[in-house]
Design brief:
alpha/beta, seven-stranded parallel sheet, five-stranded parallel sheet, 17% strand, elongated
Length: 304
């Protein structure tokens, strides 16, 4: 029997489909803290985690039988890849099910920030006299410049769609990329200073953690917009809220689910801040595709 552990916020249909395969024994948990006993780790053959659940070294040390680790995302995120590789654990992702959805969701957030859709909606229903003021952040008539930090599958797809909307594309990445449309590579500091909109699409690694701190945020234009769909920890969320509150940034959309409770409450009170559900993009056909990809990877790996 092949024991498969499903951790985090995964599609319920995935578990049902896997249970229909007699070779698999399925266990579901919310996070790894729910597995208190060493014996519960020791005999797991495969683990499937959502895009947010961190996989730390202490779990990998105790999962003596683990051979396959699948992240339902476009990148491994918070997985200790070096240690996993040293133990012979094969790590896979499901990028093609998520990249188009994340890109579309990113563009929706950019437009929502540009046109102040949230504040305008609330003002309208509150019969506020300030309705027209909510549109003050979108006055630039010339071509907008989008700066993308992290130009992998998702970042380049965001760039392609934004270019088709008439935006100039800048990007910052550890590698030169040939995306098939005009895009200029810049160091992070220059990109932040030049862009009207900055969109981040990065995993959480030692190199990216706290990458967008208060000093880097201060390099951005006061009229700029920040959209962050990176893994938790890449952006200093408290500094972002302070910047929008003080007028140092025009608006920001960031993952509300990754915010501590006190910052989540503060974000809800700041006009121009969109604390969104970063998992909202993975729904309907994309969610089903991600589940199908996971099942295919498991069946192929274990020759089922």
């Amino acid at each position: 029997m092949i024991r498969v552990l499903l951790a985090g916020n995964l599609n319920a249909g995935m578990a049902e489909d896997l249970r229909s395969i007699p070779e698999f024994e399925i266990q579901e948990i919310d996070d790894f803290s729910n597995l208190a006993a060493e014996s519960e780790f020791a005999h797991v053959d495969a683990v499937v985690v959502d895009d947010r659940t961190p996989v730390k070294r202490d779990f990998l040390q105790r999962a003596a039988q683990l051979r396959l680790l699948i992240r339902t995302a476009s990148n491994p995120g918070e997985i200790d890849l070096e240690y996993a590789g040293g133990k012979g654990i094969y790590v896979r992702c499901t990028p093609f099910a998520t990249s188009a959805s994340v890109a579309a969701y990113t563009l929706a957030l950019i437009l929502a920030c540009l046109y102040r859709i949230g504040p305008a909606y609330h003002d309208l229903h509150a019969e506020s006299d300030s309705v027209h003021d909510t549109f003050s952040g979108c006055q630039k008539e010339e071509k907008l410049t989008l700066g993308i930090v992290g130009f992998g599958r998702i970042g380049s797809e965001v760039g392609r769609r934004a270019f088709n909307l008439g935006m100039e594309i800048l990007y910052c990445d550890i590698e030169e990329v040939q995306p098939g449309f005009p895009a200029r590579r810049l160091p992070l500091e220059h990109l932040l200073a030049c862009a009207d909109i900055v969109s981040l699409h990065l995993p959480s690694t030692p190199d990216t953690r706290n990458l967008l701190h208060a000093m880097n945020l201060s390099r951005m234009k006061p009229s700029a917009i920040l959209v962050d769909l990176s893994a938790p920890g890449v952006v200093d969320a408290g500094a972002v809220l302070d910047a929008v509150r003080s007028g140092a940034l025009s608006a920001s959309a960031l993952d509300g689910c990754a915010l501590p409770q006190d910052l989540r409450e503060a974000a809800a009170e700041i006009a121009g801040v969109y604390p969104v559900n970063s998992g909202a993009y993975l729904c309907g056909p994309r969610l089903e595709q991600s589940s199908n990809d996971v099942i295919s990877i498991l069946k192929e790996f274990f020759n089922v």
